[in-house]
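Structure (tokenized):
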């Protein structure tokens, strides 16, 4: 049996790898030979998927930011379509990545009307509800949405989709997370050091828009507190030289890490991070955080003036219960001064306590551990294998 999985960017590669692992494990237990072909990244390949195209480095958010990736994405999709015509899959699973997956899903439905298509982690139309047309398109080509957020499940179900809420897959990662003491020992962090995880970028555009104010904030924080040391996990190895150069330019006491994101988070007293899936990993490890994001001025103008977007929250810890659990500094609010203000406050006991209580309420809405196994079994059961 052949399954096709399509996703993009670093977070999609992570979610895809967890699902690939679960699918292959459950298929083996059932005595099924499973061939998984995919658009994804290194993690999915390591989990056992055969990559038809590498998508981790071509993700972006925004009007201007996306232009440079249009042609590479189109070429990759044309090659993938050719492969799938010659090697038809038995089912397709789309993961997030709306800009590419929605047109790809429409193509699959048009060319293979009977192909089972699952959307696992559907686009966050349920948050911004900016385009009912996109919602209708997703429902039209999808046989079933496998939702990870309660709000996601409710939104798409109300719109007429067949939906199963499976819970959030990052719950399954908790078993592999080191304790704070083990993580600090692994990284060699002394007891009197204030360790702050700094996660500025998983996309190229974020190095331009997010890194400068984050690093300036880090410089100011170290001027105020000599015990602070920053730990910076590298999302993609190609970003390492840029990050190391910036550490030197800003004069930071910082260590750039490769492949140790979970360890850096587990060891941290605080995280300063871009908006994204990492926010939920940080929350599930009970580490206080400040969430930041910034687009180009053109993208921000289009979102506000043309699309009339009014989004209550952007980070998963706040979206789950639509509650302001973590501070979000978006666009003009993302200044070094504001980051310093929010971050230094969270090094105090009372603000930390309030945030951890919010994390507890959030955790209760995420479902139970075993999400990836349940999702894999659901897909295989649907296919009657």
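Design, position by position:
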């Amino acid at each position: 049996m052949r399954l096709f999985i399509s996703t993009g960017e670093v977070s999609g590669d992570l979610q895809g790898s967890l699902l690939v692992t679960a699918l292959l494990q459950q298929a083996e237990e059932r005595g099924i030979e499973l061939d998984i072909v995919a658009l994804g990244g290194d993690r999915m390949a390591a989990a056992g998927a055969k990559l038809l195209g590498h998508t981790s480095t071509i993700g972006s958010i925004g009007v201007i930011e996306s232009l440079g990736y249009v042609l590479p994405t189109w070429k990759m999709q044309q090659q993938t379509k050719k492969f799938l015509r010659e090697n038809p899959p038995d089912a397709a699973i789309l993961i997030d990545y709306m800009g590419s997956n929605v047109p790809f899903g429409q193509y699959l439905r048009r060319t293979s009307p009977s192909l089972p298509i699952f959307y696992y982690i559907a686009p966050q139309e349920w948050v911004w509800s900016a385009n009912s047309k996109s919602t209708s398109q997703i429902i039209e080509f999808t046989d079933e949405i496998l939702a990870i957020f309660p709000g996601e499940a409710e939104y798409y179900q109300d719109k007429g989709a067949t939906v199963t809420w499976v819970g959030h897959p990052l719950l399954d990662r908790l078993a592999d997370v080191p304790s704070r003491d083990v993580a600090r020992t692994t990284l060699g962090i002394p007891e009197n050091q204030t360790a702050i995880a700094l996660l500025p970028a998983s996309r190229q555009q974020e190095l331009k828009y997010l890194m400068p104010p984050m690093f300036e904030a880090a410089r100011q924080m170290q001027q105020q507190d000599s015990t602070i040391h920053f730990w910076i996990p590298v999302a993609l190895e190609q970003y390492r030289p840029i990050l190391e150069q910036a550490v030197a330019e800003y004069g930071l006491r910082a260590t750039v890490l490769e492949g140790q994101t979970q360890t850096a988070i587990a060891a941290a007293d605080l995280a300063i991070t871009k908006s994204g899936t990492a926010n939920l990993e940080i929350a599930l490890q009970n580490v206080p955080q400040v969430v930041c994001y910034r687009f180009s001025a053109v993208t921000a103008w289009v979102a506000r003036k043309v699309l009339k977007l009014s989004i209550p929250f952007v980070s998963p810890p706040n979206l789950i219960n639509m509650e302001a659990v973590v501070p979000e500094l978006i666009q003009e609010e993302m200044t070094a001064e504001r980051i310093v203000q929010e971050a230094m406050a969270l090094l105090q006991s009372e603000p930390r306590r309030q945030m951890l209580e919010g994390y507890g309420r959030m955790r209760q809405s995420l479902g139970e551990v075993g999400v990836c196994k349940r999702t894999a079994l659901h897909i295989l059961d649907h296919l009657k294998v």
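Reviewer-requested clarification: The first helix runs from residue 9 to 29. The chain has a mean pLDDT of 90.
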